[in-house]
Amino acid sequence: MEKRNVKICWLDPEKNKDLLLPVYQTELAAGMDVRAAVEGPYLLESGAVHLFPTGFAVAISPGYELQVRPRSGLAVKHGVTVINSPGTIDADYRGEVKVALINLGKMPFLVNRGDRIAQLVLAPVVQAQLELVTKLDETSRGRGGFGHTGL
Ligand SMILES: O=c1ccn([C@H]2C[C@H](O)[C@@H](COP(=O)(O)OP(=O)(O)OP(=O)(O)O)O2)c(=O)[nH]1
User: Fold this and answer.
1) Are 37 and 13 in contact (CB under 8 A)?
2) Nearest CA to ligand 1 atom 3
3) Which run of H or E residues covers position 75?
4) Residue 25's pLDDT is what?
5) Which of 16, 29, 45, 134 is most buried, by CB atoms within 10 Å?
6) Around 30, how many Cα atoms within 13 Å sit in the side-chain half-sphere?
7) What does CATH list as the number for 7-124?
8) 3-state secondary structure of 22
């Protein structure tokens, strides 16, 4: 599989030396699991949103983004997901990578330091070059959308 360099650094290496870098759990996994750098256990109440630290920053190649996506196990078993999924880490961002979780489940969810809370997917990006025109070409769909073909 094609690999692309992503520079990563701990923001406070001394404080975070107990944490592991994001890792692909299987050979062909698309996402690297990312761990919570919370200082102690954090209880995410039902219905609550919290921005979790990861303790690291990255530098991605131009033309790529890192997407912050939910882990399906957390979503299905506990209703815990990434509220802005897929979160976008821009190639020019040098701040701490953060994970915004929401607890859509009925029970509070405990996040411990080092828990795998989301996954990061490196994805290519193409910027749109907008061309302002007065009329668009016609298509058979036209303006139909939002279920106009039926459910
Ligand atoms: O889940 C996320 C989403 C974003 N970011 C960081 C990296 C990203 O490059 C930056 C800005 O994200 P975005 O463009 O989605 O946020 P915004 O609300 O539009 O803020 P800004 O005005 O800073 O672009 O915040 C994260 O750490 N985690």
Assistant:
1) no
2) 87
3) helix 72-78
4) 95
5) 16
6) 9
7) 2.70.40.10
8) coil
Beta strands in 11-108 (DSSP E): 23-24, 32-35, 42-44, 49-53, 56-59, 64-69, 80-82, 87-89, 98-103
Spans of the chain, pLDDT less than 70: none
pTM: 0.95
| Cα dihedral 108, 111, 115, 120 sign | positive
CB atoms within 10 A of CB 35: 24
Domain range annotation of the chain: 7-124
Cα 140 to averaged position of ligand 1 atoms, centre (Å): 37
In the numeric block, which tokens belong to residue 49?
A: 């949103």
Binding-site residue ranges for substrate: 71-73, 84, 88-90
Q: Percentage of the chain surpassing pLDDT 90?
A: 95
Per-residue pLDDT, 151 = 79
